[in-house]
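Sample entry copied in:
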Amino acid sequence: MALKDLMSIVSTGDNKKMGLSEERVNAIIPVAREYISFWREYPDIFVEFLCGNNPNNFKLYFYQRVFLRAVMRHRYAYATFPRAYSKSFLSVLVLMLRCILYPGSHLFVTTGGKEQAAGILKEKQEELCKLIPGLQNELDLTRGKTKTSKDNIELLFKNGSKLDIMAARQSSRGKRATGGLMEECILIDQTLLNEVIIPTMNVDRRLTSGERIESETVNKSQIYVTTAGWKNSFAYQKLMQLLIQEIIDPTEAVVLGGTWRVPVMEKLLKKSFIEELKLDGTYNDASFAREYESEWSGDAENAYFSAERFDKHRQLLQPEYEFSNRSAKNAYYVISVDVGRKGCTSEVCVIKVTPQVQGTSLKSLVMLYSYEDEHFENQAIYLKKLFYKYKARTLVIDANGLGIGLVDYMVKAQIDPESGEVLPDFGVINDDEGFYKKFRTGSTELDAMYLVKANAPINTEAYVYCQGQMNSGKIKFLIDEQQAKVKLMATKKGQEMDAAKRAVELQPFTLTTILREQMLNLVEENEGVNIILKRVSRSVPKDRFSAFIYGLYYIKLEEDRTRKKKKRGIAGMMLFSSGK
């Protein structure tokens, strides 16, 4: 039912349709004004009115009513909610209600990608119109009006309002809108948001009389919705800005937040799903806190590694699951391992090394693996298979403590239980004492392993090298899992995946984020000339970082050896005169 039909209902008190006349409209305007003013403050009651005799029996949950009222009453809103909180559903509903209750409005949805924004708006609009039939009646569905396509959607309302998407790109400069929704704002580039998106919202809604009322809530309205991210991000800075604004002027801004407990209480999310997440081998306290507790993560004060540098070099779009020479013919792989056993995972990093004509090589962390509570012989089989899968130059293993136990199996042959193939014994490069030579056979994979026996000087050398290489842009990481999910969901393959398969597909990106957390939890202490990196939060381990640093240390040694060879080669070609 359109709003124009409401006038006849209010005047007669029943559902009997009556013709409209100028006199009848003028008579009902004061009553309609009161209704609309009321609904702007209590949008949940307006939703009930629009549902009518809804066969789907759609009912709003209490927390959804709170969300609708809070956001509709404030010009600026920031909501940090976990998955399954129906935050996108509610946010798009707010936009549609504003379009209906504020005729002539122009609102938009934007996020990290144009296709993603179009997908969100289209999906939620269709769902909302099915659940709330009155919304469908307000859309202008005549030919050439409301338009939808793969990467664009434009909803036109009968009262002249418009709801569409706005790409977070330079091409959006010059566009104009009344307000907008910044969906998953942690994915939106700070510069584009400040310089392109926000400036588009500088036009107030024009009333039918031609005047504009700047104080109307819909004008310059901004809704930010996201899962929690990082404290050193622009999204968090915007959250803090609106929180301060809410304190100064609570009528203008509101900040909302919630945890997984609310959707579980309303049966939108199963508690068993949360329990399974915590039991997963890749479970991480900080990651869970962000995704489901809505707690923003932050690097430790005075952290040794820079969050900004790490994020700047998260440029790898896809992991590598096997050997590939597409990027460079002279590239090679190094696989590094931090050994775990009995309740501790063994962490594996696959680093692709691409030598450069000048300077140090380019290091790309193309894949990460995590093996939980596996017997050393099983770990040896996994690692040997990875070695051949990537045609790796070297397998770098932590040989302190538990690592020695794994090496004992690595220098023996095993049979792959899946293929029945014999995996030969692996030789040790730096077997200076000759301890492992006695295990060699005719089929030994010579010089396959490099054993790191870390101590303070070695760790210091590795830490300094890692920091320097990150600062110079020589280390590349996989992109953030949220960005990876956006790209995955833009494909037909990703859309057809169930949640479990999608999680497996995104696991390398998630493990990279966990590595980031571990690195940003480390602060520097000194013991003489040596650097000691200590964990600020004891709940955040450092095993994945250890695996990564072992690989980098070996690569540094290789680069040093190559540099010395070049120097010796040049010196041998030099000619000296007698000076006579």
User: Anything to note?
Assistant: Residues 7-13 have pLDDT under 50 and may be disordered. The longest strand covers residues 362-372. The CA atoms of residues 8 and 18 lie 6 Å apart.
